[in-house]
Amino acid sequence: MPTFIGSAAPRLWQTAETAMDFREAIATYYDLSISGMAAEGKKDLPALDTFWRTTLPGLLRERQNEDKEKACWLTKAELVQVMQWKLTRGKMRPLMNLVRGNDPATVKRISKVALTAAQAGDIAGAITLLSGPELKGIGPATASAVLAAYRPELFPFMADEPTLIVLGESGGGKLKYNLAEYLKFQKALVKKCNELDNAVKGKKNEMSPGEPLTADEIGRALWCVSKAAAL
After folding, report:
1. What is the C-alpha separation between 105 and 89, in angstroms, rounded?
2. Whole-prediction pTM value?
3. Which segments of the chain have a pLDDT < 70?
């Protein structure tokens, strides 16, 4: 069992050699962190987290498979739930009324264009569309939460803890919730995934780790290791 607690979250980021290092951290600490936060008063978090990790990705895949143009989108209710999850898992901010005030047709239209951009691998375009002026209360971090449910290999969720660990001194120890900062964070996590994948391919007789590690898995691993230390 891994013992990544306290300062070991940055160490995990710096020294992980295989996808299993991150996946073992998730297996050990993610549910523990969620249940621990629920016990401290965030009782809705387990259900919200299941929605974000399992229900929403399934809905998006089903919607895309059924659409003639292979497009998909979010409903307003789904966007509200993503924001509820984000604020409950992280820091509460006065954003819920803004998100609830969005027009359902606008949510569908903007999210459809943004997810189409994500299909094409347009990282900046997808984040910019979702966090633009037409959707109230949605910044790059919330946009990344939506996109992580759709393409986790390309869009890690921009949670505070992994962002600070990954950007480190380059961010001056302060988070900047803007596109440029997200792109630095995203690029670093995708690069780490590629490095680990290439390292496995370069070793003879190395067993395959299964599905390729996703950028969002790295983010979740860093988040839960950091969070477990605080509980």
Report:
1. 28
2. 0.91
3. 1-6, 169-173, 200-209
Cα 185 vs. chain centroid, distance in angstroms? 11
- Return the ∠ at Cα 121 (arms to 95 and 166), rounded to 5°: 60
pLDDT tens-place string over residues 164-211: 999 985 555 678 889 999 999 999 999 999 999 887 665 544 545 578
Structure tokens given for 227: 């969070």
Q: SS3 for 162?
A: helix
**CA dihedral sign, ordered 231, 156, 136, 76:** negative
DSSP codes, 150-215: T-TTT-----HHHHHHHHGGGGTTS---SHHHHHHHHHHHHHHHHHHHHHHHTSTTPPP-SSPPPH
163 and 175 Cβ atoms separated by less than 8 Å: yes
Token pair of 29, please? 């600490």
Distances (CA, A) of 173 to 90, 168, 216: 18, 6, 21
- What pLDDT, on the 0 to 100 scale, is given for residue 231? 79
